Amino acid sequence: MVGLAFALFASGCSSLGGGGVPPTYDLTAPSHFPGLRGARGQLLVQDASAIGVLDSDKIVVRPSAGEFAALTNAQWVERLPRLVQVRLIQTFENARRIRAVGRPGDHIAGDYQLVLDIRSFEIAASEGPSAEVIIGAKIVGDRSGRIVAGRVFTARVPTSATQGSAAVAALDEAWSRVAVDIVLWASRII
Predict the structure, then answer these.
(1) On the CB side of 92, how many CA atoms lie within 13 Å of its CA?
(2) Which residues contact 34 (CB under 8 A, 6 or more apart)?
(3) What gap in Å lies between CA 25 and CA 43, rounded to an integer?
(4) Is 164 helix (H, G, I), strand (E, B) or coil?
(5) What residue ranges of the chain have pLDDT lower than 50?
(6) Residue 116, helix vs strand vs coil
(7) What's the first-to-final CA gap in the chain, in angstroms?
(8) pLDDT digits (tens, 9 = 90+) for 129-168
(9) Residues in Cβ contact with 126 at an 8 Å cutoff, skipping those fewer than 6 apart
(10) Omega before 34 cis (within 30°)?
(11) Count H helices, E strands: the chain?
(12) Which CATH class is domain 24-29+40-189?
């Protein structure tokens, strides 16, 4: 397994409403990359876009085609698009293939922007079950505004569970595969 998501809060912690805070999970920023080479270019990673069901801190399960639900008693540590942006920036930093990487507003004069679209980030309960991550990525010239390259990245990881830490660990592994693929692809272009 590439990485392991972890619970940050125990379910017995108190919250503002007096009830327990559900276990909160994070994503891994992969750190092992084949064939490192010198760093080039500067990259700004935009906040990822996502449809409403994915634009939250809820961990999504798809019980059947066209039906979405959230894992009961579990959540991401941050809104998913923001979490993907932050962990992808860390993955680029871990790879050391880009001279500088950051978010818009980090006072980095980027040569390129990476625009992300989260298309799927879920446990597909009726298909195996499995964790599925699909992210569309575009590299845009910062000065020209033209799309230099675009690609859709997909990973599917079988899981033994549709709830709890086993399901989230499968999502984290699928995410890690996609994150590594995005970094390797972008570093060949930039």
Answers:
(1) 26
(2) none
(3) 27
(4) helix
(5) 1-18
(6) strand
(7) 29
(8) 999 999 999 999 988 889 999 999 999 999 988 888 899 9
(9) 62, 63, 64, 65
(10) no
(11) 2, 9
(12) alpha beta
Residue in the structure block whose two tokens are 């995410």: 175
For the chain, the structural domain boundaries read: 24-29+40-189
What is the pTM (predicted TM-score) of this model?
0.86
pLDDT of amino acid 99: 87
Task: Round to whole Å and give the CA distance between 112 and 61.
Answer: 34
Instruction: Name the DSSP letter for residue 190.
Output: -
